[in-house]
UniProtKB/TrEMBL annotation:
Xref: InterPro entries: DNA/RNA_pol_sf, RT_dom
The protein, known as: Reverse transcriptase domain-containing protein
SUPFAM superfamilies linked to this entry: DNA/RNA polymerases
Native source organism of the sequence: Psilocybe cyanescens
Reverse transcriptase domain ranges (all copies): 44-307
Amino acid sequence: MRDALASCSNLSAPGPDHIKWSHLKMLMCGPTHVFTVLLALANACLRVGHWPKHFKESMSVIIPKPNKPSYSAPKAFRPIFDGVASDVFHRNQIGGIRQRSTEDAGLILTHMVRAGWAKGLKTSVIAFDVAQFFPSLNHEVLMAILRKLGFSDNVVKFFSHYLVGRSTQYAWGDFISDLRQADVGVGQGSALSPVLSALYLTLIMRLFELDPLTRGCFLLSYVNDGTLVVQSKSLLDNCEALKRAYGVIFELFKKFGLALEHDKSEVFHFDRSHSKDNPPVDLGYAPYTGATPLKPKLYWRYLGFYFDRKLTFTEHVRYYSTKALSTVKAMKMLGSSTRGLRPVQKRVLYRACVLPIVTYGFRLWYFAAARCKGALHHLSTMQCSAALWITGAFRTSPTGGVEALAGLPPINLLLR
């Protein structure tokens, strides 16, 4: 309990009770009997399987999802409210697990593709999305999965009590509703939802591996984004294997009370040869059946990465360098050489807001022996523009000198 409390930030917003983590830390540093009482209460709740009602109340802030063609449908909004045990999670689960990120999922996929190329194999993937994932998790199925995974009855009862009797307030702009019942699924945005959802998927992924129709197929999961990966000498063989695997995973999700959004499924082929073969896949489910199969696109966007057939990542670098350059140009209204922010403040703003954009996923394309001269040129052009803004120097100033004056390391050294 002391370790968990020490890792909590003092700057996080308090709940309806206005009690911050700093207040609890002060109590922990006080008389020992205070900590003893809190520890006894926590152990008692876990022992009898009781989740205090006060911690079942939350506020759900309605956030519009970006890049939606229309916000007239409720699905265009996302309500958000406010240690890994050995052999519990599946090894192919990336999202919602400590010390694993989207970049890990991207690295796993690129490694598989390049390793397959070294063996003369071509790689094909189908990406699918689970519809309304967090609200659709069945409580009884989840508790049965926890028992199957070996959790004690006290822990199962403790989580079971957490899932019922929950209530939330909906906040939309300045409007805040009354408390409403929210017992459906697990709350998206809560600290427990990634853990419970990952446990829910663990059994599905294990059953998928045991099915004889999925032999040779690799299933990668990042929360509700799944990816089926197949490798062989022929792209047509890959398409047949992907169709069988997609049917198996669809039936498994259906048995566990979940549904796939077929219209969001995507297929992509990785092939470094000069062949232009790019066969579509008949999923066997509408709208991608018969005369309207699922066709591959020129680029595939997965977890924010832009993949191309030969893993050059030119589109990925172009997209994020352009986005970073647009951000730098927008920041120019915050200050110039004569007014606004001081150079030190501009530098802090650039490092905090622009560099995370431009370096997202760089480990996928920047490594030893990688051909990335063109990519580095795009990033250097962006950083030169930022350095000119920070220092207020003339546009014709030498790039290296301006970067040094602004306190920015060259892009190639930064990536190393």
